Amino acid sequence: MDAFAAQRELVAKACRIIGNLGLTKAATGHISARCDGGFLVRARGRDEVGVRYTTAGEIIRVDGDGEKLDGPDGLKAPQEVFIHSWLYRMRPEVNSVVHVHPKTVVLFTITEKQILPIFGAYDPTGLRLAVEGPALYDRAILIKNDLLGEEFAAAMGRARICLMRGHGITTVGPTVEEATLAAIKINELAEMNYEAYLLGTPRSISDEDIKTFIPGYGREDGGNTASDGAMPPLMGNVRSSWRYYATLAGEN
Ligand SMILES: [Zn+2]
Questions:
Q1: How far is the CA of 100 from the centre of ligand 1 (A)?
Q2: 3-state DSSP call for residue 62?
Q3: Is the pTM of this model over 0.85?
Q4: pLDDT value at position 218?
């Protein structure tokens, strides 16, 4: 009996949702979940079929340094496993990491355009992400060793989302569902901003209106940090949002 079966299935499902929603390019990208002795992560290698078609058998277990502990011979930890290992090492509040390459978000990393808080009631979660402001990792390289993993995690700091210039995004959460929804929501926010820039000059909504959604807005930390340093919840309805996007992606 595989003690990690349910967790493997959840990570695989998150991969399929992200893939089906078009949030990453070809086979690339990986999602992980912290587990006993290390973490579970989507593997790469000759036996993989791509994020969109990920099965639980492609979710391998690695130790805290990213070294493979189990899984088929034709699969190994992704080159960029160091994104995951360093975030788990440096951030005890993080239990899941998503790393993907969504085109529209990447466009914002390669221009001087900012992702702005352009809506409120349209999608309060997207507003929260815009106000929190994603971190930026300014290099376009693969995070393929411990030195770069540490550098990347330091650049991300306490942020929920990190944009990676000319590369992709990394999101984190206390659960697989929240880390995945953060990736979906930053992509939706970026798509809306992108279209607004095409149509004209987007402008941010007022501080007063932002405050109705994020009461701590305007404080030094932007209302983004709870007293224990944890991230505030991404949204109030994680379960129903998860169910919605899973269904949209053909799951269930
Ligand atoms: Zn990457």
A1: 6
A2: strand
A3: yes
A4: 81
What is the arithmetic mean of pLDDT over 46-57? 87
Q: Where are the domains of the chain?
A: 5-245
30 CA to middle of ligand 1, Å? 8
Distance CA(10)–CA(177), nearest Å, equals 9
Among the listed residues 58, 80, 132, 177, the single catalytic one is: 80
Distances (CA, A) of 191 to 102, 115, 121, 125, 143: 10, 10, 17, 14, 26
Query: Around Cβ 110, how many Cβ atoms within 10 Å?
Result: 11
d(CA 249, CA 63): 31
Is-catalytic flag, 80? yes
Taking the C-alpha atoms of residue 188 and residue 40, their distance in angstroms, rounded to an integer, is 27
State pLDDT tens for residues 225-245: 555 567 888 998 999 999 999
Tell me the C-alpha distance between 84 and 51, whole Å: 17
**What pLDDT does residue 251 have?**
93
Encoded tokens for 92: 């005890």
Superfamily of domain 5-245: Class II aldolase/adducin N-terminal domain (3.40.225.10)
pLDDT of 184: 97
Output 215 or 62, whichever has higher pLDDT. Answer: 62
